[in-house]
Write a structure and sequence with these properties.
Number of strands: 0
Strand content: under 5%
Low-confidence stretches: 1-17, 203-210
Structural class: mainly alpha
Helix content: over 70%
Number of helices: 17
Order of helices and strands: HHHHHHHHHHHHHHHHH
Amino acid sequence: MKKAIIMAIHQANSTKTNWIIVLISSGIIISFGMGIRQSFGIFLLPVSDVLGEGRTLFSFAIAIQNLTWGLAAPVFGLIADKYGPARVCVAGGLFYFAGLLLMAGFMNPTILIVGQFLVGMALASAGMSVALGAVAKVAPKEKTGVALGLVTAIGSFGQFMMLPFSQTLLSNFGWQISYVVLAICIAFATIFSFGLRVPKGQRTSSAELANVITAKQALSTAFKDRNYLLLTTGFFVCGLHVAFIATHLPTYISDSGLTKTTGSWALALVGLFNIIGSFTAGYLGGKFSKKNLLACIYLLRSVVIALFVFMPPTTAMALFFGAAIGLLWLGTVPLTSGLVVVFFGPSHVTMLYGMVFLSHQIGSFFGAWYAGFIYDSSGSYLTMWSIAIAAGILASAINFSIQIPKSREVARV
């Protein structure tokens, strides 16, 4: 009896240690991966000048990155669900490293697109969906919402950390050396992939094992579910907002007569305040309706964007916008991934969230590319800002219309 009790305590402590290690490792991986990815916007002007092109080419390359990320995410999610996220994240680190070095050494229009394609593959295999899937599988059920919010918040620190760092590199050493140094940072972050080892079958009880379905069955069920389709549609708008702002905000601020440093700090503040926003969203998602919280986030984004665009451009306003939009930035992620668990449980969460994320990345493709196209066509971002405002209102209405029995939401989280 005594031996059994000791073994039970040891197993409980081991499980607790394991999910905390997975959470911290996921946060570090996302910090570097997303932090560097969000800094690409400050490279728009110098790289476009070297290539002798307008803003459309660079915007299109970023759009290709986002679309690749979205298309590959469900595939890598399926692999991670089957073979574990650690191996998938190591592969992602190699993709990222190769893409940055390629762009640093041989920049031309084709290489820019190929390099961003590799970055997209990296973000699909070592980004949000795989990392959050790993956390969702190992975190205690009652702490899933907080855990997803926390890992997103830890990851958000990377944006605050990497943007000023990247701007300093760019100002002092140029874009080529900057890409090389950022590649070295990715190599360091890849080491933490080994912290994502998830014991096979963890988070699946014997009662749940009897109900486990195949990946094909899970997809078939998901695409017949009205709530899942509405969630997927709404997440398109999140991608549009995030890619447009991350790619074009520093340049828009510079176009408004403010300094380049102001632009990079505004985007850095997005990352800093996203730490608060993501954790808060995850925490509130464990206590209140996730779909209503999502609807509020999208609506508030539209309000903040409207204030920023239609108020006179000042440094204070730019920094306020960075902080305010940061509070609403990736708070959608723990809520959206949490709703996927609510709908279908944890067994295929990485793959199913990957499919929702594909919609996000199609929105990202549109947000990154069309903004550059609009600017080169009209000399202004005003049309794109207007689209972003209208899309936020639409996404708010879509998420409000999701219908989830209260007992089901509480029981799953």
